[in-house]
Design a protein that fits this description.
Layout: H1 3-9, E1 15-16, H2 17-27, H3 44-52, E2 67-68, H4 70-77, H5 82-89, H6 94-101
Antiparallel strand pairs: 1-2
Length: 123
């Protein structure tokens, strides 16, 4: 797509996924920390999941980054179901995934140090 056409269609400059994540976090009332190295409440991963769901339009030609329309971010931030959307887009750990699926998480059985007998006729 021609960059001039894109710029003409978007009255405001596109914003990076990390800035979009900050705006979403603020809309939820849980701003991302400003200090480097602290864990964010909403990350660019959530923004990429919103792009994959069609809630936001990916405007960057760079597969490693994302640029989005700030007007679309504003519209997403006004949604009543924003907290549920973010929760469903956030990556889960094993315990969280098991809880969401309604299953019991089984521990991993380690066979380290177990006897490895060759059995009859094997060496």
């Amino acid at each position: 797509m021609d960059p001039h056409t894109v710029r003409a269609a978007i009255p405001r400059e596109p914003i990076a996924g990390s800035i979009a994540a900050d705006r979403i976090a603020e809309a939820l009332g849980t701003p991302n920390p400003a200090a480097y190295g602290q864990r964010s409440n909403v990350t660019a991963f959530v923004v990429r999941r919103f792009i994959a769901r069609g809630l936001l339009t990916h405007l960057s030609g760079n597969p490693d980054g994302s640029l989005v329309n700030p007007d679309e971010i504003d519209a997403v931030c006004e949604r009543e179901d924003l907290a549920a959307l973010v929760a469903s887009a956030a990556p889960l750990g094993p315990d969280q995934a098991a809880e969401r699926l309604g299953v019991r998480r089984a521990g991993v059985v380690s066979h380290a140090g177990a006897s490895t007998s060759a059995g009859p006729g094997r060496q």
